[in-house]
Amino acid sequence: MRMTDFQVGWVVLGNDGRRVGTVKGVTPHYIVTARSGFATDLYVPASFIANVEHGAIHLNLTQSDASQMGWEQPPRDDEAEPEDDLHRHV
C-alpha cells in the first residue's frame, strides 16, 4: 500500500495497540494525525509507519513515545527525506 492510498479518518496506532489519533491529512513524507483531547496535531514521518491493514496505520513505536517525539510542528522542507515516500509501500 502506498501513502497515496491512506484515507482521512483512518486510525493511527502505536505498536502497543494504543490509539495515537486519526489521519487528518497525508503528504509525501508524513501523515498529519489529529489527536482527540489535544490542541495540536502530530506530523508522523513515513519512516515510522510499520504496517497498514484494514484502515489502521500501525507505527513502529508506542503511543507514549509518539507523543514525546516533538512532532507537533510540520517538518521543514530541508528535513524531509529525499526518498519519495508518497509511493513507499508499507
Explain briefly what this protein structure is.
This protein has 90 residues and is mainly β. It has one helix and six strands.
> Could you name the ranges where pLDDT drops below 50 across 5 or more consecutive residues?
78-82
According to CATH, the fold-level topology is SH3 type barrels
What's the pLDDT, averaged over the residues?
87
CATH class: Mainly Beta
Distance between the termini: 6 Å
Number of helices: 1
CATH architecture, by name, is Roll
- Alpha carbon gyration radius: 12 Å
- Numbering strands along the chain, what is their spatial order in the largest sheet? 4-3-2-1-6-5
Count of folded domains: 1
Can you write the helix and strand succession as a string?
EEEEEEH
What class do helices, strands and sheet pairing give?
mainly beta
Shape: globular
Structural write-up:
Strand 2 and strand 3 form a beta hairpin. The chain has a six-stranded mixed beta sheet with strand order 4-3-2-1-6-5. About 6% of the residues have low confidence. It is mainly beta and 90 residues long.
